[in-house]
Amino acid sequence: MHCPLETKGLLTHYITMKSIRIASYNIRKAIGTDRRRIPERVIDVLNEVDADIIALQEADRRFGVRSAALPPLLLDSQSGYKAVPLNVQTDSMGWHGNAILVRKGAEVGAHDVIHLPCLEPRGATMAEVTLNSATIRVFGMHLDLSGLWRRRQASAMIHAAAQGAAMPTVLMGDLNEWSADRGCLADFARHYNFAPCGRSFHARRPVARLDRIMHCGRLKLADSGVHESAAARKASDHLPIWAEFRLD
């Protein structure tokens, strides 16, 4: 929709603002809705989404050496992304399945894994990413199935995000929260804004907003949504969600 700008100063301000596209995707260890493990399909979907930064959940296999669900050579040769090097396990891409992908041209500064209070193994990841002269801090997470533990984990995430130098911040991932405005969602909402992405689960017939993107006030939300391509409906039981932000 065309919106005329009323002043030259406003036009200049609009042009100088930087934009960045963020996405979150539970790839279910590359097992699709047909129960076949085909990592190439997931990479096709990542390329379709075309985000600058992508938080992945279930990015590693669950048992054994917990190898990456997306083989590094395949990711490198068939996409424009690289994984933030968490250096936790030799064959894994992430930390308890949480990984962060960035464009190959992006600069990764501080990055770390976050230990979450849990009954079963859970964790989160953090990276400070600079792309096109804009720096943003992102957190990726996959919260518990239990509402009590989700709230404890949300508290830990809010605390972790409050540490360090102030900068534009995004928290995202599979929150496993079915309630519309209660539980951990209410906890996060006291500190962050939610991008209204839409329903992402189940991929074949989306009925729930289990996947969420949250942002601080230093980021201006331009647009958001769920990526619902034919490929995405087959590659995992979750659909990817995305949000585009502008920042000064």
Automatic annotation (TrEMBL):
List GO BP terms, alphabetically: GPI anchor biosynthetic process
The organism sits in which domain of life?
A: Bacteria
- Taken from the record, one Pfam family name reads Exo_endo_phos
Q: Which GO terms describe its molecular function?
A: endonuclease activity
**Keywords, in A-Z order:** Endonuclease, Hydrolase, Nuclease
First and last residue of the signal peptide: none
Q: Which residues form the Endonuclease/exonuclease/phosphatase domain?
A: 23-238
For this protein, the record's InterPro entries field holds: Endo/exonu/phosph_ase_sf, Endo/exonuclease/phosphatase, GPI-anchor_lipid_remodeler
Q: Which GO terms describe its cellular component?
A: membrane
Q: What is the protein's name according to its record?
A: Endonuclease
